[in-house]
Amino acid sequence: MARVKPTKQKTNNGANVGYEAQLWQMADALRGSMDAAEYKHVVLGLIFLKYISDAFEAKHTELESQRAEGADPEDPDEYRAASIFWVPREARWSHLKANAPQPGIGKLVDDAMSAIERDNPSLKSVLP
Known about the structure:
The protein is mostly helical and 128 residues long.
């Protein structure tokens, strides 16, 4: 008896949800009159900020759980010893996220980048 080839059923796993055009329109609206070549630096800066904030928060949580053993979650050396960038309070993603609806969020992000550069000399003049 011949084998019947099973038909592949399409499932919507979220990989292609049709929002691409809408996302591009939103990105264009957010960048305003900024040149697209310049906009990429802003976006990459935010992605970097989110990445280092996530690594920082994971280590911060770990250090919080080790307070009884003498760990200090607010000691920059604890992070440097683990090769994690120190993220000052005003540059933490949670702080930026909480203030995102404010009209001055652009300045807060700029200040966050400056604070990260200030406290992490290896990043001096590297961030957007």
